[in-house]
What does this fold into?
Amino acid sequence: MLQVEQLKKSFDGFQAISDANLSVPKGEVVAVIGPNGAGKSTLFNLITGHLQADSGHIHFQSKEITNMAPYKICHRGMARSFQLINIFSSLTVFENVQASIIARHRLDQNFFRSAIRLFIEETLEVLDSFGLFEFKDRSCSALSYGDQKVLEIAIALGSKPELLLLDEPTAGMSSEETRKIVKLIKHLSREKGLTILLTEHDMELVFDVAQKIMVLHQGKTIAQGLPQDIRNDKSVQNAYLGETV
Amino acid sequence: MSTNNLKLIENPKGKFSNYLGLGLAITGILILLMAPTILTQYYVYLLATVFTTALLATSLNLVLGYGGLLHLHHGVFFGVGAYTVAIVTTKTSWPFAVAVMLAPLVAALIALVIGWFCVRLRGLYFGMLTLALGQLVWAIVYRWNALTNGDNGIHAIPVPEFLSSINSVYYTTLLILVISLVILYMITKSPFGLTLLATRDNPVRSESVGINVKRHRLTAFVIAGFFAGISGVLFVLVERSVAPSLLFWNESAEVLIMCLMGGLTVFMGPMLGAGILVLISMIVGLYTEYWLLVLGLLLLFLVLFLPQGILGYLMEIYNKSQTRRGEN
Amino acid sequence: MDFATLASQFFIGLSRGMIFFIVSAGLTLIFGVLRITNFAHGALYMIGAFIAYSVSTLFGQGPYGFWLALLVAPLVVMFVSLVIERGLLRFIYNRDHLIQMLLTYSLVLIAGDLVKIIWGTEYKSMDIPNVLRGSFNLWGASLPWYNAFLLIVGPVVALGLWLFLSKTHLGKICRATATDREMVDVLGINSTRVFATVFALGGWLAGLGGALIAPTTTISMGMDASIIIYAFLIVVIGGLGNIWGALISSIIMGVGEAFGILFIPGVAIIIPYIIAGVLLILRPSGLLKSAW
It folds into this structure.
């Protein structure tokens, strides 16, 4: 579904990504891991169009999307959540997800309807599946950090994507909250058939959900394959310098 | 758990405050309709001026408050609208109706051109470019003597017979104001409006959910320009003359102050700010010629102690009391 | 159109550019270090001009008056700036642009009327001192001595600023604050002192600009309005916080305006806005590196 080939990106002389390669098969959960500063977020930003690549190609569903505008990439069926909470701060929880759904239906430029009545059922369904139903009319700044992170992901799902990118979805979460997210990821993958690409530092989580792993080190893909192969890969072990895998 | 709770969306409290708002609006309009019968001509003229300014301020707030863009030179579109009416009526033989319909369209067109360049930029740079391009339009109007009469302005603009009395002007401006406000309000409550708020809160996230943020902002900019053009028409009806100073930056600054004073986050805010500002300027004018000093001190106070504006402050208090009640 | 006319117009434009630079340098410094949009900068410039007028008039508009005015006016404006910074500005350092702009704009309104109250509404004028009066001949062009004077003062100020920012301890701290404020705080440096210094310095420069332009123009209200927009455009075009950028764009604006007056006198006033518009569209982040 997603193919990244020989991607390169540098900032002011610093080579953030020197040779990234990734292949995400449809319907699978793929994880990108690597030590801090390996370039995982940069890679995500390149895939979703928030950054322009210096060279290389990105193909999504067999079409080239390298350097396409983020909103166009979203229209093609890709959605992402962010590492740092990136929500619509003055809107209610309900409106946060609703905005995403409205955009998906291309009604964002519509003047003639009342926004309150649009897609109520669909929005409530999404909120419910994330356990956010009770907060729907609250201002999202009133939510706890964990709930805000869940909202993060819920907004992405409003776009009904074929490919969902999760950028460190459990960063800063308690183990209870992390378990909820793991359950959610499994549910989305198995019941909804969503293709998921995620980056994580939590190795336990990665080996629990991922069917394929790509290892990024200093901007370069050093390994890509099945979890147990990655586990035994010498170059990966070297890169982590003794981090328990 | 889910769909039978749909009824919860129809919040009874919310419904009440909607009816309250509607009731107040209707009462307000009725009072204003009766105004010319009890007030002197001067106050009728003053109110007509308030209506004109209220529309201008509300149109700016679409971009400033709802769009979150630092739009520093909105007055330009107001001036362009006013000048369009002036030029068409004095330099061509086209009917007055054409002038009136052309004005907002020309204003929107200028807004399209200026906005197209500006939406590429963010934050302070956006503001600077609106300033630069707006001043460019001012300079053109100021110097293009053949078209605009340059520094002299255009005076004694002819209006149709039925608009010759101040009362008829009053009712016309009130009517156009109400219609425009209703349209603008509907726009803010539409999916477009919600999306605009989203682009204000988080343009990056908006892009990620499929919103073309640049195009959205440009659309808001053009709509605001359109209604500013309408307020320019109203201005001509009231004043019957135009001058290049209408397009200079300090006029736009005053509109910004009105929005801040009333509250950027509330629909009625800019309107309230406009009313207060016009009223204060009239009262102050009776006692002293140093109106700018008073305005400056007022603005200083606002910025330091009431940046959310009067209505913004009231909303805060209301919301706080609601959450307290909700917790009990 | 002969070379002499072109040359003299270029000369005049360049010297106008020097005044633009002196004013804009203060503004860009304030931008870079305090991160504040100071609309009151034009008002400070205007106050500088009025004070220069008063000081000079006190001494019968003679030569001593001029040089004293040049000394006193910037100092007075600097003092006023200090009061503004300590008394008002420091409360809004972390607010958004609109609030900052409107606060400084409120000062513009207040200053405008205060000037009216103190000096009245009639236009004032100030004489150029004898030693700088008249013009000299260069390549067939007649160039006023006063403009030559400005062409010396400008680079001197630029040099002084550069020395201050790169060689003095306080100057280096200012630069550090512009690039990384948190780091400066962590290092225990008193940012309060830095902010006050920078704003005062900016005010001094604005006052100097006003004092320098006073003999060449009618001193009146509205001076602040015309200079502030130019100054803002120059600062943004040159790159926020970048002194050299301000110098380059000041020269472009000054010379552009001068040639505009020469070639298209009727519509010359649109030239600066066109230049600004074009440059902003082509390079929105400024010609040179911005401190932001």
Chain A has two domains: 1-77+161-245, 89-160. The two ends of chain A are 28 Å apart (CA to CA). Chain A touches chain B through 46 residues (CB under 8 Å).
